[in-house]
Amino acid sequence: xxxxxxxxxxxxxxxxxxxxxxxxxxxxxxxxxxxxxxxxxxxxxxxxxxxxxxxxxxxxxxxxxxxxxxxxxxxxxxxxxxxxxxxxxxxxxxxxxxxxxxxxxxxxxxxxxxxxxxxxxxxxxxxxxxxxxxxxxxxxxxxxxxxxxxxxxxxxxxxxxx
Length: 162
Prior knowledge:
With 162 residues, this protein is α/β, with parallel strands linked by helices. It is 36% helix and 17% strand. A hairpin with a 5-residue loop joins strand 2 and strand 3 (28-29). The termini are close together.
């Protein structure tokens, strides 16, 4: 089994609850979980690179990525674009997709999930993701520590970390 070198995840519905919140003036905001943020810190401490691949393009995600100190942020990705981004990251890190863990929540995450070594989804993910062979389903929903729960599982599984 290959050792995980990079942890990637989707944003909306995975790191957030999937809601689109707007103020009267049109300003958007998102709810993120502090527990997920600590999970990213734990990954960094374990020497694992991190990244966010998302279809949205917002300053909110950029701010969150900076706060989490992720190594990679790709915004505006269509489903194939997420896989292309993962491949680009692998090339930069000189690793294979087998050494990547990915967490998502919806159909646009399927192309990446079908190719990575370790796949996960949050509890409220689409049924097609939950049905993927070998996927780990978080006991928690997106935006409610769902990503952290998977990080904890992976970090505590010696088979995953090599």
